[in-house]
């Protein structure tokens, strides 16, 4: 076995040196940052020169030939596996160092893997798989979940063979609908709180839902606002409350919130508007939660705007994790595009979606978020 030491400014430079010197069969044994502030890395790599015993040629088993997404050329997959192994060694030995560049390389490597997994194939079926994969990824579905969908489509297809492109799309929509149907909304609670970042449309959405309860379901409805930071939001809610003939209470702290609940003691449904804050304001959520403790068990609805990016939505979910929200409401469907990322967001959030809003008009621009409707948004909207 040959073992050599290398110094390099980064992972990519080190891997190029190692492969040029020891060949593609070399493996990384260890890495560490060198002292001195120059940002250099020490990499120990090795290559085993022991010849492997000759193996008799054997026929490829029939099951191997028929594997899902079979690769005629295994070199690409083997190369990716080797690259991932090397990056795994680097991550393990880095011990908290800045790995931004290394993780970027890992991300690119995985993207290439999923591209190959989704697009490689032979004949008519391979072409159909490629078209399906392109449609799913083009809609905004992550490459990993697109590949999972393709595997499930093939599993459900007669004898594991996809008939045609249109049938594959319908099957994908059916699978997504079934996944969304797993998360059923919990039993409704009397006090419903609307949470979310600024600009997501909490006040308008609250007014739409209030109108549904009051005008369609004929329930006694009361409103509470905790948002006194934006005068426009308070005035907007006052206008909605006056038009619908609903009482509105203002509560900014725990004591005033308790009094507001007493004033609305005869109401069957109480809707609570909360202030939206920027991502840098980390102190308002604990204050909101402390105030809500005055009313005991409440239904917490997290609002997510479909004008936000996939990354921003996931960041909002992370920020509001401490709130332990019960349900999700998607707003501004009419302003969003390539909504396939909803599949990823809903799967990661693990919460039922109760409503989607489709415009600014109160009360009509809102609808129940049925699993079929959500799957339609992911696949086609």
Sum this structure up briefly.
With 381 residues, the chain is of the alpha/beta class. The protein folds into 2 domains: 1-48 and 65-98, no CATH class; 191-379, P-loop containing nucleotide triphosphate hydrolases (Rossmann fold), CATH 3.40.50.300. The chain has helices at 11-22, 62-65, 75-94, 100-119, 123-138, 143-156, 165-181, 202-216, 231-244, 254-263, 284-292, 310-319, 341-349, 371-379, and strands at 2-8, 27-33, 41-47, 191-195, 221-225, 248-250, 269-273, 299-305, 327-331, 353-357, 366-368.
Protein described:
The protein is an alpha/beta fold and 381 residues long. The protein has 2 domains: 1-48 and 65-98, no CATH class; 191-379, Rossmann fold (3-Layer(aba) Sandwich), CATH 3.40.50.300. It is built from 14 helices and 11 strands. It has helices at residues 11-22, 62-65, 75-94, 100-119, 123-138, 143-156, 165-181, 202-216, 231-244, 254-263, 284-292, 310-319, 341-349, 371-379; strands at 2-8, 27-33, 41-47, 191-195, 221-225, 248-250, 269-273, 299-305, 327-331, 353-357, 366-368. The strands form 2 sheets. Strands 6-5-7-4-8-9-10-11 form an 8-stranded mixed beta sheet, sandwiched between helices. Strand 10 (353-357) and strand 11 form a beta hairpin. The longest helix has 20 residues, at 75-94. The chain starts with a strand and ends with a helix.
């Amino acid at each position: 076995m040959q073992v050599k030491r290398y110094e390099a400014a980064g992972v990519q430079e080190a891997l190029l040196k190692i492969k040029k010197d020891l060949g593609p069969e070399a493996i990384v044994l260890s890495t560490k940052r060198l002292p001195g502030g120059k940002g250099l890395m020490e990499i120990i790599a090795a290559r085993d020169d022991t010849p492997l015993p000759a193996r008799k040629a054997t026929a490829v088993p029939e099951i191997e030939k028929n594997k899902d997404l079979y690769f005629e050329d295994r070199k690409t997959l083997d190369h990716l596996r080797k690259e991932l192994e090397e990056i795994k060694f680097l991550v393990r030995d880095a011990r908290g160092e800045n790995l931004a560049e290394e993780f970027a390389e890992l991300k690119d490597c995985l993207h290439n893997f999923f591209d190959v997994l989704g697009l490689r194939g032979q004949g008519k079926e391979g072409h159909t798989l490629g078209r399906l994969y392109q449609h799913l990824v083009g809609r905004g579905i992550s490459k990993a979940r697109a590949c999972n969908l393709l595997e499930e489509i093939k599993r459900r297809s007669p004898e594991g063979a996809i008939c045609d492109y249109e049938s594959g799309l319908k099957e994908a929509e059916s699978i997504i609908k079934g996944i969304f149907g797993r998360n059923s909304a919990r039993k409704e609670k009397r006090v419903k709180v609307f949470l979310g970042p600024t600009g997501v449309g909490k006040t308008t959405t609250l007014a739409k839902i209030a109108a549904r309860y009051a005008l369609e379901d004929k329930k006694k409805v009361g409103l509470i606002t905790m948002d006194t930071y934006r005068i426009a939001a308070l005035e907007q809610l006052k206008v909605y409350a006056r038009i619908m003939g609903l009482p509105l209470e203002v509560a900014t702290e725990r004591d005033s919130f308790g009094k507001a609940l007493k004033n609305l003691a005869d109401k069957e449904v109480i809707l609570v508007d909360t202030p939206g804050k920027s991502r840098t304001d980390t102190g308002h959520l604990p204050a909101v939660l402390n105030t809500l403790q005055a009313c005991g068990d409440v239904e917490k609805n997290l609002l997510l705007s479909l004008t936000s990016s996939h990354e921003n939505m996931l960041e909002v979910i992370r920020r509001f994790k401490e709130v332990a929200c019960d349900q999700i409401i998607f707003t501004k469907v009419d302003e969003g595009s390539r909504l396939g990322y909803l599949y990823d967001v809903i799967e990661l959030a693990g919460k039922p979606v109760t409503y989607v809003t489709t415009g600014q008009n109160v009360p009509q621009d809102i609808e129940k978020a049925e699993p079929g409707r959500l799957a339609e948004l992911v696949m086609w909207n």
